[in-house]
What does this fold into?
Amino acid sequence: MISINSYLFVTVLLFCLGLYNVITRSNAVGILMGVELILNAASLNMVAFAHFNGNLVGGGIFALFLIVLAAAEAAVALAIVVSIYRQFGTIDVEEATNLKG
Amino acid sequence: MPMIELKDIAFIILALITLGSAGGVAFSKKIIYSGFSLLGSLFGVAGLYILLSNDFIAATQLLIYVGGVLILILFAIMLTSKIGDIAVTNKSINWKVAIPIIAGLACFLISSFSGDIWKVADKTPYQSSVSFIGNALLKEFLLPFEVISIVLLCALIGSIVILKREVK
It folds into this structure.
């Protein structure tokens, strides 16, 4: 009854909620949470494909590398957020406009 | 009428937890509530990994995402924003533009895989994935494994450099 399409449906909804978060948030940490949701959706998709394909390793390796890269990305992004907060006194991405042409 | 198995019920519950918490992340009025909703979403995804018989990845997800990244995000929220100020912490912009884009994308993606188009392999009995992943990491994926440790070192040094205060 639960086929690969059910998993794909869940990951599509997860991806769309993450993308909505990235588009609509003006808080930099909120945008980062959206990116985490998108990365989770992608790795869940890969693991689902590998599982239904009978592949024991591929999806797990992909998800493992993706989790590690997401951790590195979160560390650097949050360092940048705190640095922006020191510079501008806010983390609203609409207000940190020094580079706007 | 098809039999409803236990794993189908587990899948439905886990999917509801994941998507409900993701909705909480996307639509919550306060950024701190978004952060706590992210916890439920990550737990739900870890449960789905277990249903897909990837126990090692589920444990890694719990250890690194819930134990590391989520705590880091909550710390960043508490260090930067004025928690009580709803209008400042989590205002939603551009949602009139975002909703048609997201709805169109969701329809396109769902229609792209609807129907019975996948060739599914025969079911194999469950095996723990830990030894397979360990062997693969030290055989076929040795080079990416080494490269990602350098990436982690760079991220570590980079975040320290970014956060360092200038000493005059």
About this structure: The longest helix of chain B spans residues 55-80. Chain B is about 75% helix and 0% strand. The helical segments of chain B are 6-27, 31-51, 55-80, 86-89, 95-113, 130-138, 142-163. Residues 1-90 of chain B form a domain with the Four Helix Bundle (Hemerythrin (Met), subunit A) fold (CATH 1.20.120.1200).
